[in-house]
## 1
Amino acid sequence: MAAGASRKVSAASARAHTRGAKQNNSFKLLSGIFNKILLIFFVGILAWAYQAIQPPAPRICGSPDGPPVTSPRIKLADGRNLAYKESGVSKDMANYKIIYVHGFDNCRHDAVIATQLSSGIVEELGVYIVSFDRPGYGESDPNPKRTLKSMALDIEELADQLGLGTKFYVVGFSMGGEWTWTCLKYIPHRLAGVTLLAPVVNYWWPGFPVNITKESYQRQLQPDQWGLRVVHYAPWLSYWWNSQKWFPGCTVMRHVIDNYSPKDLEIIAKLPGSNMEHARQQGEYESLHRDLVMGFGTWDFGPLDLENPFPNKEGSVHLWQGDEDRLVPVQMQRYIAQQQPWIQYHELAGAGHLFPFQDGIVDAILRAMLKH
């Protein structure tokens, strides 16, 4: 009796074990398939994300699919071409030779010191001005390997190839002001004088008190605060961030009206047509995005680290700033001027970012620099 019961239990256990084994095998099979699907899905997401953050290839000027070359260019030592435009008197007759560095989303045609300078001053002082397309803008080749030092060396090589002499003047406006700081750092011995017009500030420059950078940073529009964080901390995401449609990107790229003061808006209403299309023609990544990454990346120096290039007063450095500038915070410019007394600081009451376009301002700016 006991033996029979034992055999029945064993048979039932065997059948249950068999069913359990089949169910277990089925579960493992389904689990394996599900894991493979998850893996494929994950790999697909990664592939999509990788493609999404990759910028399009640049349309190099002069290439079969690129825009035409319409301006004179010099060939730099590394093989890149740099486009330029000359204004004023002939450089052979000039008393003063000035290199102008354009701002963000501009090009060589946007040389405000050439377009706004009165003809009387040009002839009276004998002023020659050359503006150039910064790498990736207009008709200058992109420079994927650009560094802070390469910015200054491009300017030095432009001066040498155009025969501007051992010393020359540099004027930088807005984002071009950052290039001007690099000239003071890397080629001070080549400078006859320097002017920075509302130069863009980097909120991560070394040496600035946290309270000043924080206050200045928080004055920017919210989308720009997020955008600059991306540019600084994850530059490889900058193209995706500013081209995706989920979150608002850089407002400066979109020329949002809130970035301009009432005085700026009056000036904009009177300005001729924009050169933005020409500035961006090789691709927004090579012009705008690389500009942002370099401008707001990690610098190995800042304006507070610079030394006076004219200890014997053989030249001068000037910084001009409007106190109602909504793009560049006046607080950081004031701090630079306080810490670097050799910089002659000019703060314009009621002026916005576009103050160089006000009547007579460029004449005053150049007279201050050239008659130091």
## 2
Amino acid sequence: MPPELEQTLAMLSAHRSVLGYLLLSRGDQVSIIRHSGVVFEGEHGKKYASVIGRIVESVQTGLEEVSGEENEGDQIRFMRIRTKRHEIMISPDERFLLAVLHDPAT
């Protein structure tokens, strides 16, 4: 893994409001490359990974339907989803997805 990515992931993990992160591969089957935080351990992490992959694909498909041919090739750059308890920030790349879960109250 490139040193700048290692540094970014370490910085994210150290932030007090961050509960964890998932670095995921993109494709038909989303898989966890790396994770941090108890919330992403075991089966719970696999569920988050699957859901995050589906969210990104669904939003991308919707964007393509709405944009039509006028904005062909338009892609999601960053997503922020806020619930009552948490906030999930997703940064999709061509090959990877980075999802960060944080507590907005802290």
